[in-house]
Amino acid sequence: MRAMEGLVGLSKEDFVVVEGKNDARSLKRIGLIARVVVCSRDGSLRHLETRARAGVQRHRIVLLPDFDREGREKMRRWRSSFSRGVSVDTGTWRLLSSVLKGESIGIEGLANLAKKLGLLRNDMWLGPDERVS
Question: What is 2-123's CATH number?
Fold first, then answer.
């Protein structure tokens, strides 16, 4: 899945914003090395924006709430909490959301989905030529 590969391809200088600790654990299981911010309150986002602006290099900020109605509302709220000039990635969430349409899976279920699709072996992300059939 291209969206998951994009997540695994983030650098350790990038940020991924999620709703809960289980979401963060799941992303780490698929090999994410980016910094995960668990956003229980919008104050976490202001702190993240400050850090992103202070960095010499541009940090990528990926917003990744769950795919349910509450998650869609959080996406709108999170996106609007960043000021102009701070680039946030909502495309990864939209891509995953469209791929998982109709599935009752949240971010915390992505590691199990990746394993089921043959993208993980022994909790290690597989390259395209290593995929399990």
Answer: 3.40.1360.10
